[in-house]
Specification:
It is built from two helices and five strands. By secondary structure, the protein is α+β, with helices and mostly antiparallel strands. The termini are far apart.
């Protein structure tokens, strides 16, 4: 029978810290992706699969997502601008008009 281990909580760890925690638990780092998060600061783990506390076979992979930050940008005030000027302001802010 294969031995089992508990998946560590990776929330708010950096990618390097999360990878170390996974290896120390006798698991393997699986797919690491990045995504915007409204609640997790940039550079920290925002979610994982399987979830923390799950009991899995030793050597199993743990996937996790590293936050790129909120992904929000300030929206420029385009009130009273011409259509062309408003579109330019929005494009310069990285938004689609």
């Amino acid at each position: 029978m294969a031995s089992s281990t508990t998946v560590p909580n990776l929330s708010y760890l950096t990618q390097a810290q999360a990878t170390s925690a996974i290896v120390l638990a006798g698991l393997a780092a699986g797919t690491i992706t990045s995504s915007a998060s409204a609640t997790t600061p940039s550079g920290y783990v925002s979610s994982q699969t399987p979830s923390a506390g799950a009991v899995v076979a030793a050597g199993s992979s743990v996937d996790f997502v590293v936050s790129t930050g909120t992904g929000l940008v300030p929206v420029p005030n385009v009130t009273w601008l011409t259509l062309a000027d408003a579109q330019t302001a929005l494009l310069l802010a990285g938004l689609n008009s």
